[in-house]
Amino acid sequence: MKKKKILIVDDDRFLTESISDILKLKGYDIEMAYDGIEAVGMMSSGRDDIDCILMDIKMPEMDGVTALKKILALKPGMDIIMMTGYSIDELIDEAWANGAREVLNKPFDIERFVELIG
After folding, report:
1. Domain that holds residue 21
2. What per-residue string of b and e applies to 103-117 under the rule 16 or more CB within 10 Å gives b?
3. What is the CATH number of the domain that holds 63?
4. Which one, of 52, 57, 118, lies nearest residue 79 by Cα?
5. Is the pLDDT of residue 42 over 90?
6. Distance between CA 73 and CA 100 in Å, rounded?
7. Contact 27, 20 (CB under 8 A)
8. Residue 15 CB: number of other CB atoms within 10 A?
């Protein structure tokens, strides 16, 4: 059975690497990007091996909601789960309205995330 490949997108490198380590231990293949621009670039380069994206909402340069919109325009139906450490109601509402599968509050329960992608 093919391992699911997850793209983790967050400007907090420590958090991104920590989530990556945990998910690798659970048997997932992981790719990482550190901002929305990098994530959109990866997905626009014809990547068809990414099964799910876990992306922060609040990032510099390009926020997660803008990246979500651009990625879904390239890859309709892509499972994108957003995460946030802030109460940014308008961005959270916009993420839901534009196709986010789920919005998780940081710190989030990794088992809940695994359930969502399972």
Report:
1. 5-117
2. bbeeebeeeebeeeb
3. 3.40.50.2300
4. 52
5. yes
6. 13
7. no
8. 16
The DSSP code for 111 is H
Token pair, residue 69, equals 């919109």
Cβ burial, residue 87 (10 Å; 0-12/13-18/19+)? exposed
Provide the token pair at 12. Answer: 């907090």
Once rounded to an integer, what is the mean pLDDT over residues 83-88? 76
Starting from the edge strand earliest in sequence, which strands make up the sheet with 5-9, in order?
29-33, 5-9, 52-56, 79-84, 102-105
Q: Where are the alpha helices (DSSP H) in 13-99?
A: 13-25, 36-44, 64-74, 89-97
| Count: domains in the chain | 1
For CA atoms 16, 17, 19, 24, give the dihedral sign: positive
> With a threshold of 0.90, does the pTM exceed it?
no
DSSP state of 103: E
Residue 69 in contact with residue 38, Cβ under 8 Å?
A: no
